[in-house]
Write the structure tokens for this entry.
Amino acid sequence: MPQGNKRGVEVDFYDYTYDGGRENDYLSNGLGQLTDGALGETNFRLDPKKTGIKGYEWVGWKDDTLSKIPISIIFKFDSVRNFSQVDIHTNNHFTRDVRVFRSAEIFYSIGGKYYLPHTTKINYERDDTIEDARFVPLRMQNKIGRYVKIDLYFQARWIMISEVSFNSTEAVGNFSEEEPPPTTPQPPTTTTMKKNAHFDSFDRINSNSQSEKLDGDGDTETLSAQEEDEEGAKTKLEEGASNNSNDAPTLEQEKKEYDDEYISIIIGALAALIFLLLCVILIFFCRHKHRKNNNNRRGHKPVTTSHVAINLNDLRASTNGKLSNGNMYNSIATEEADSDHDGVGCCNGSSRGSEKFACKYPITPTH
């Protein structure tokens, strides 16, 4: 594995106890702080064991560019083993640019020179709440190997690890080292090409998307290689049966039915829209006509067609023939007027023309 990096002036995240070889800041063939059983504190600037070195329990690596290049750690065991789980104690002091790794890939090998293509990939859910250091368990699904390579991908600027422990048992059986991959692939037949292409694409999809949640820490892991191959073969058989049962006329008929259904939906929507538009126009026309009628009624005044008939003969009779100095009292002349005109033509038999006048004596009203 690569040697740790220095942080600032006071803190060095080196593996001080590594007993193997050191060459160009690369450690190999030895053991160190990652297997000594000592766990680091969340605050890596402390020195709880009074060693005089702050962050002594931690081995840390930084990536200033946030590239996708992982930190690779290779573990070698005395014999071929069956691995079930690995626990990695890591820090999540995110206010200091330290986080748990974003994802991890685990590779297995018998000889240590070539690693099997089928790996275990685990994605870790980002924690923005708790900064405490914690163990992150990674399931290994009972994979077989003597060499285990773990690639850790950065989530922040720093990855810090203080302990790595494995749960495994010794594998039973005869195991041979992996053969080197062929440099010049043989030209496959048409059937073999389709099969390989199908499984290769299926493996790539599963390596990126299929995952399971780990218990308690939000980890995810992909399916094993055997499960991927079985599911890929099953999917291929189902697709082949479906392709054989469907011929070209059936596809054309389905397409035509789909087009007809789509067109009918469009026609129905347009008809509904036209109906709503007609309703709006009708309502607007009725309201406009009603308003116009109200305005016409307000502009016209009522005209009275009744007439008053006046009988001039009745009016002349009510004046007693003459007016006394123009004074009347309930159509009865006053006493002064009557006395002045006594004997003056009152009972005169002379007449003008054919008109005759009758003498009227005053009547004293009774009380």
